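User: Second chain of the day. Same drill as before.
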Amino acid sequence: MKITVEIDCSPVEARAFLGLPDVSALNARMVEEMQSRMTANMSMLSPDELMKNWMSFGAGAQEQFTKLMTQAAGLGAGAARPK
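Assistant: Same format as last time:
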């Protein structure tokens, strides 16, 4: 025997029926917080700020980055891992 029950209700009605808490206020607060953090961090993504951050490391960082990329390319090509 096979019985199919179809219930047409909104998510709010389903949560209330199952006795789950209403988290809409918490969800709204979380979205507001995420938006404010994203807005605050957007200035870090400007080209000027990125270049300032990258150039502040100096030539030593550029050499280390080149060495890292060379090692990663070698590992991708099947070279042995350094021990």
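The helical segments are 11-18, 24-41, 47-55, 59-76.

User: Great, on to the next one.
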